[in-house]
Amino acid sequence: MKKIVELYQKYKEVINYLIFGGLSTIVNFVSYFIAARMIGIEEVTSSAISWFCAVLFAYVTNKLFVFESKTETKKAMIKEMVSFFLARILSGILCDVGSFALMVKVFHINDIFAKIVTQVMVVVVNYVFSKLFIFKKKEGNQ
Question: Are residues 77 and 111 in the same domain?
Fold first, then answer.
């Protein structure tokens, strides 16, 4: 048990990122189901709502539990949140949609394989954006 705790402490940030990323995916699916199937909102609109819910959940959990960000002002928190959403939009357009279209339409790669590859890319790119730009620790705050 001690070894498990040591490993967790060593890789805490990555482990928490993966856990809360998985939970964000669940939030996406559940909020889509509620909006589309239970409330009856059109599918594309429901998808946009579920994306927003998932990204908002991801922001809060990444801020509190993954990167343990300590924004001290409302202005800093808004800047951090906007940066987070913009990074998610960018990774969604470039990695998820753009790379997928390139692999499937240009290189004729199997769509399921392409989807798996793009999702791995999205996870990595989102982690890098979050670690290096959005929740970057300030000097003396490490």
Answer: yes
